[in-house]
Batch of 2 targets.
Target 1
Amino acid sequence: MCSGRVDLEFVLRAFSNGTDGVFIGGCRLNECNYITHGNYHALNMVLLCRKIMEHIGLNPERLRIEFMTSGEGILFAEVMSEFGNKVKELGPLGKGEGIDQNELKSKLAEITKLVPYIKLVKNEKLASRLVNPEEYDKLFTKDEIEKLFSEVISYYIDPEKCQACMICAKRCPVEAIISAKNQIHVIDQEKCIKCGTCFEVCPPKFCAVTKITGAPVPPPIPEEKRTIVRKGKPR
Ligand code: SF4
Ligand code: SF4
């Protein structure tokens, strides 16, 4: 019902499936039926996605958003015809840009995995309401996008500090923490959406969760070494 529901992940999925172009149609800006003004969310998502596309070497013109009413059939037909011609001109996704298909697939998969993180980090800008179309291109800068991917944050539980209080595991929104009583907790990096909750909730007296920026995460402690040694109790 609302263009604001079109998630960044949907667009990336379409491209991952080999779609050559994605068009999003929304109601006119400031004419939203809801107080949420979801069409601004859609616009900002598209502006971000277009910069991400540029970052991985895809032509951003493969993604277009337009705002119109249901009474503007002629305008819709014109825009679709123009967009269709543009996509034809650009050629098949990736081939038109000279990117290897496997490389493109792996780049798109990598970025799709980071969608929750990207939305969290760019939350403020994604909620903006730009009035002047001239501001569109400036909302997200090239440097900002480069930094977004070169300084990705990861979370790691220091096995020397974890006391298996289980608080982080209970609060993790995606069950990404391997948890058991008296066992050092471990973050499953494949499942982690980098929300930072574990970092926030780990009690200060333990301070076991570390934030790592733009660097690899140490390998997880082997399962057989995860039992916590308490004073006076053998492993
Ligand atoms: S950062 Fe968020 S998603 Fe990742 S392990 Fe911590 S709580 Fe779970
Ligand atoms: S909250 Fe901290 S001390 Fe408690 S289980 Fe998680 S990482 Fe370990």
Target 2
Amino acid sequence: MSTTIPNATDQNPLTGLDQWDDFVEGRYREGKSQEEFRQYDKAAQPGVAEFYRLNHENQTVAFVLEKEKEYYSLQKGMKSIWEAAEFLNTMVDDSDPDTDLTQIEHLLQTSEAIRRDGHPRWMVLAGFLHDLGKCLCLYGEPQWAVVGDTFPVGCAWSPDIVYHEYFANNPDRNVPEYQTKYGIYEPNCGLDKLHMSFSHDGYIAEVMKPYLNIEALSMLRYHSFYPWHKHGAYDYLANEQDRAMLPWVLKFNQYDLYSKGHTKPDVRALKPYYDDLFAEFLPASLAW
Ligand SMILES: [Fe+2]
Ligand SMILES: [Fe+2]
């Protein structure tokens, strides 16, 4: 049974979740400034611009707190990693279902590229896990609450957030406390104190919190926090530990952005390696 991601509704302007990944990859390709890419993109991919409009208008403090309450208590049932991956696989990208890789194949491409380069096993694991939180779509969340660049809510939006102008219609614009540099936070309080815009990143980090080291958790939690890891924004909310984690997040980002290809990983052949890897770090079944 498969679930097709709804599109062409005002809630889901992307033709598929991968469209956002492709957009980000193109945005950071060499030789194109952010502004150039954005101008190009607005015309070429109106769905992406519309996606960011919905994201920036709806990711408010109230929305984020509500979603954290709903999902961070992990009440969606127990699943093994393979079960979670199979569940995610029921989501078919209807932009091109015949040629696109399945969700599991995408995860394996990332983790296998990390493994090939000889990185530690916990990082290979982080590669496999990092997008499992996209199952939020299957729980009924709209795309703008699942993918996209993340940013803290409750403080001034950095100009480094792409399509920044769409924050003009975010209701938090009218809450003076949320519009100051530090907002509801203390200077250099540490990124883990922030309420980040709701997405698959924060959700998977919550699921994995009891089991992984801080490096792997930072990769999961901040992999879409482009304003921070690519542009250096929000450093005034980060602490020394976050700065120590930044090189790991950046290292991970290379694999997230550029490991995509059209060679299908052989899931069956790789399974024994991943069975061992999951058993090394994780219980047989986890709360989601
Ligand atoms: Fe992701
Ligand atoms: Fe990814």
